[in-house]
Amino acid sequence: MFYQINQGRLAASEQPVASMAPIAAATLVQAPAQPAAVRELCHSFYEWGALGVSPGLIVAERVWCNAEGALAFYFHEGHPPQPLTHVGIARELAAWLVLLDKWIETAVVVAQAHARWDVEALGGALTFTTPAFLPPALVAQRPDNWERVAYALARAIAADPPTGATHTAQPGKSSPI
Predict the structure, then answer these.
(1) Contact call for residues 154 and 114 (beta carbons, < 8 A)
(2) Is the distance from CB of 126 to CB of 88 less than 8 angstroms?
(3) Please, what is the Cα angle at 81 between 75 and 82, to 5 degrees?
(4) In what order do the strands lie in the sheet with 71-74?
(5) How far is CA 30 from CA 104, 128, 148, in A?
(6) What is the mean pLDDT of residues 164-168?
(7) Measured in Å, how far apart are the chain's first and last C-alpha atoms?
(8) pLDDT score for 10
(9) What pLDDT shows up at residue 167?
(10) Which of 5, 32, 74, 125 suits a disulfide with 93, CB 3.0-4.6 Å?
């Protein structure tokens, strides 16, 4: 079964949307990805976390998308999506960013993630951006990029927050950045 978020609801279908392809074969990742397309993919992934549902194991074989940024995940029959764990979407987000970075320039991936998720969410993802927490199949897939993504995420977190976000220290308390 293929699951995607459609108008704020989890939707299931026997087949993916006709324009979708496995991420490794998708037009979006075959040509130089435009930031707008990556932004839409990140938005589609963000919706899973906003709904409180895990997209499951983040590996290329399960991820289907199209050039418009629609996103679906394949689940084996009888194993539907589950609620997020106590760490929220952090673990899945780490794997998502590493997966996107297999085909899309790191700077584009991290910039779009920084625009979509707040510093706290990115910091949570950074915690899981290591082979100890990433799916083994994702780590084994070339290129070996988890470390590059971790460094880029750390730099983004250390930089100024995205436009519109405000982080101010309160008297007697340290700043969250």
Answers:
(1) no
(2) no
(3) 145
(4) 9-13, 2-6, 71-74, 63-65, 21-22
(5) 9, 27, 21
(6) 48
(7) 41
(8) 96
(9) 45
(10) 125
**pLDDT single digits (tens) 106-147:** 999 999 999 999 999 999 999 999 999 999 999 999 999 999
Banded pLDDT at 48 (limits 50, 70, 90) = very high
148: its two tokens: 């590059």
Which residues does 142 contact at the CB level (< 8 Å), separation at least 6? 102
pLDDT of residue 35: 81
Q: Can you list the pairs that 27-35 forms with residues at least 24 positions away whose Cβ atoms lie under 8 Å?
A: 27/66, 27/67, 28/65, 28/66, 28/67, 28/69, 29/102, 29/103, 29/104, 30/103, 32/105, 33/103, 33/104, 33/105, 33/108, 35/108, 35/111, 35/112
Contact between residue 73 and residue 55 where contact means Cβ atoms under 8 Å apart: yes
